[in-house]
Write a structure and sequence with these properties.
This protein is mainly α. The chain has two helices and no strands. 6% of the residues are buried.
């Protein structure tokens, strides 16, 4: 079986780490732009929103990967 429980846990943990990283990178970039270049507050908010959007895109990709694992689990053992 390709879609073992361990594989699913690994995907979920990877998704959580990448989601937090996307948010932190977006917030950090916004803070850095504001601190070093005097960017207005909306730039910082925009960077956080972009971080959230990146996290959502990752969630969609991982959901598709989990659905593929489910399809592989539902196939009979003889099929490829």
């Amino acid at each position: 079986m390709k879609g073992t429980v361990g594989t699913r846990y690994a995907l979920v943990i990877d998704l959580a780490i990448q989601g937090v990283a996307a948010l932190l990178i977006g917030a950090g970039l916004g803070w850095w732009l504001k601190a070093h270049y005097g960017a207005p507050a909306w730039v910082q908010i925009l960077c956080v929103v972009l971080g959230v959007a990146a996290a959502v895109v990752n969630m969609i990709r991982y959901q598709q990967r989990l659905e593929k694992l489910d399809e592989q689990d539902e196939r009979p053992q003889g099929e490829g």
